[in-house]
Amino acid sequence: MTDSAAPPIGVLVMAHGTPSTTEGVEPFYTTIRRGRPPSPEQLSELVGRYDSIGGTSPLTERTRAQVAGLASALDDLAPGRFLVRFGAKYTAPSIEDGVAELAAAGVRQVIGIVLTPHQSTLGSGQYFDRAAEAAAEASPPLELVSIASWHRAEGFARLLADRVAVALDSVSRQEAGRTAVFFTAHSLPESVVTEGDPYPSQVGESGADIADLLELDNLPGVSWGVAWQSAGRTPDPWIGPDLLLEIRRVAQEGVASVVVCPVGFVSDHLEVLYDLDIEAAQVAESAGVYFARTASLNDDKEFVGLLASVVMAAVPSFEPSGSPSGSTIPA
Is the Cα torsion angle 115, 118, 123, 128 positive or negative in sign? Predict the structure, then answer.
């Protein structure tokens, strides 16, 4: 039973954030660019991408639903034990706002989790650095345990494998011939993916785990691989191979259809609804291949239940005497 006199354990859910209006795109873009306003051409292109998916990204709505679903799932597992708050990297409420809310509510221990399954220095690492700094500056300081990654949490690969199976079935009804399956994640500049950064290998592990569950290596006419998407337009190289180039390559090799599973993303947003559903689909069409994309996890009940289990597993990381602020554990 939960000790009713003990303060709840805080859960800080962190995600990227997105502008809620067209007017918010420019300041959002400026923030991402570390205070450098975009050129008129860059701004026009980004606004055009948002317009093509309905004017704004559904990421805010999807993230709120995921956070609410996680809070509900945790309350089902341990009534009254957890207090869940959200903090975004680039929009309000910020990561610091989320920590402050938990501190004001009397929380003394916090579990941090990012809504991205893989660990990276530039990605999840920056979220945790900000959360750790805010936790240390709280009065009294908060104990923080950060869940470094959860790409191999029990059931995660199966959830995505089920979606790949559905997509493959849709392909088989539309097209005969060979099929290429690509597991994708957001590319990063090669310069920041330094030696020892687990991000590329963890994305590869996700792809391999799903492929093993579906026995893709044994399916006649099916090949699979990891590709990278949504690279920034900078002069320095980004990690690859790039998905769009891979679609063109397999088309030249005689593949009839392409299935894309964005393993690095857990909800519908610009990088899925535009970069895949519009841009990649157009490349596939121009190359003469059928295109299918797996359904996003969003606030699927099984998915938020999986996240709740990941959070619950992190609780023992708090020692009775208190753990140091900013400690990190694997999922």
Answer: positive
pLDDT at 327: 67
C-alpha distances in Å from residue 145, one per residue of 85, 235, 249, 312: 15, 37, 43, 12
- Are both 188 and 143 inside the same structural domain? no
The reply to whether 42 and 114 lie within a common domain is: yes
In terms of domains, do 188 and 118 share one?
no
pLDDT at 54 over 50: yes
Same domain (yes/no): 137, 45: yes
Instruction: Provide the residue range defining the domain that includes 315.
Output: 9-150+301-329
What sign results for the dihedral spanned by CA atoms 231, 234, 238, 240?
positive
The answer on 314 and 217 residing in a single domain is no
- Nearby residues of 201 by Cβ (< 8 Å), 6 or more positions away: none
- Please give the average per-residue pLDDT across 227-235, as a whole number: 90
**14 and 141 share one domain:** yes
pLDDT score of 180 more than 70 = yes
Q: At 265, is the secondary structure helix, strand, or coil? A: coil
pTM: 0.93
Verify that 61 and 166 share a domain, yes or no: no
- 149 phi-psi bin (left φ>0, alpha ψ -120 to 50, beta other): beta
269 and 169 in a single domain? The answer is: yes
Taking only the tens place, the pLDDT of each residue in 117-163 is 999 998 899 999 999 999 999 999 999 999 999 999 999 999 999 99
Q: 4: burial class by Cβ within 10 Å (0-12, 13-18, 19+)?
A: exposed
